[in-house]
Amino acid sequence: MSKIETTSRPTGTSSKPYIISSQEGEIIYIPLSKSATRLLVTGKETDDAFAVVGSGGSQGDPIGFHYHREAHDVFLCLKGQINVWADDQCRTLSSGDFASVPPGTIHQYQIVGPHSEMVGLIVPGGWEEFFRFIGEPYDGATWPLEDNRNFFEVLLPKLKAAAEKFDMVPCPRHRGVEPQSWAETDSKLPGSLKPYFLKNATGPAYLAGGTVCRPLATTEESGGKFSIGQIEISSHPKLQAGLFAASSRRLAFDLVHHAFLAIEGVIQFHLGTSEPADLHAGELIFVPKGTDFSIAAESRFASFYVFANGPSLTELYQRLGGAYRFSSLPDRAAAWDESGIDALSRTLSCRFS
User: What does the radius of gyration of the chain's CA atoms come to, in whole angstroms?
Assistant: First the structure.
């Protein structure tokens, strides 16, 4: 058996699984930004379906209002706080909070506090070239602490050129609101393509055997282009029931690439004929379409995010599970019924082996 490659940056091919360690990726510094951008998955790996981009930084200015004609942005806070504006709304995102910004939405974000981290999905892939265009390669530990260069000389000419080259329309006259309190509607998925915010662990959740699935965006909220969710699992014997309870079962999606980002605990992935690989907090694994895989918890509690360019593992769990109203795993697994798996696998273009 071969090992899944662990790399410091995306591989550039859509047929090869890989793992990127925590805080790695192709690291780009945007001049004067007090932050670093990490390309984790690019359009080259997903056939331009999506890109996954991480960002970490300290208190800075808002990046400036703009909108995209085709690109759909999402913001998922991992640490600290991020302000996100979407049209006439603004929320301060903390760990686990989520914002979806579809095409045509005037938006901007701002990193808040001494050290904040977020991860975003960009649809379609390829738009991440914007960061390479305006930024600079960076090989430091975090991000530059000081940058006293002149904005009008260093960054403004690149931004003007980027506005013409990329799908980005600046809106300098747009007036933003102050960050607003979270609303009752921020615990629901809208069910359509519109901007929204989702407060951590307050949205819809589903229990499938011993696994909890929390969708953050389904194909209904993305116009069929992507899905994102949080999955919680456990190695505890009382929770060993569900999709991957049989150690030999594998699952493959024929049309959809997956990227999994570990948040807590240790998750073991079996991919194709490769040796099992453990994913630790902060690490990401890319699973190309058509690759069979299985997932198991190697710790008492483990949590990870799922990014995909269509109906994915998140929506499979959502349809297999029952509604769940708690913010943590149950004491024991729910009854597990596999009678609808075959029909559901055909609907989602996935297969079991």
Answer: 20
Distance separating alpha carbons of residues 249 and 295, to the nearest angstrom: 10
Bridge partners of residue 138, in order along the sequence: none
Residues whose CB falls within 8 Å of the CB of residue 278, separated by 6 or more in sequence, listed in order: 266, 267, 268, 269, 298
Q: What's residue 245's pLDDT?
A: 80
Terminal Cα-to-Cα distance of the chain (whole angstroms): 19
* pLDDT for 257: 97
- Residue 93 in contact with residue 81, Cβ under 8 Å? yes
CA of 20: how far to CAs of 34, 122, 127, 172, 281, in Å? 23, 18, 20, 37, 11
Q: How much is the pLDDT for 340?
A: 79
Is the pTM higher than 0.85? The answer reads yes
Backbone phi, then psi, for 286, in 5-degree steps?
-100, 130
**45: helix, coil or strand?**
helix
Handedness of CA 209, 212, 214, 215 (dihedral sign): negative
Identify the three-state secondary structure at position 164.
helix
> Measured between alpha carbons, how far is 279 from 264 in angstroms, rounded to an integer?
10
Residue 85: its pLDDT value, please? Answer: 98
| pLDDT in the model for residue 336 | 81
Q: Six-digit token pair at 201?
A: 């662990």
pLDDT of residue 247: 65
Among 53, 93, 47, 128, CA closest to 284: 53
- Helix and strand totals (H; E) in the chain: 6, 25
Residues in the chain: 353
Count of Cβ atoms closer than 10 Å to residue 173 Cβ: 6
**Which stretches of the chain score pLDDT less than 70?**
247
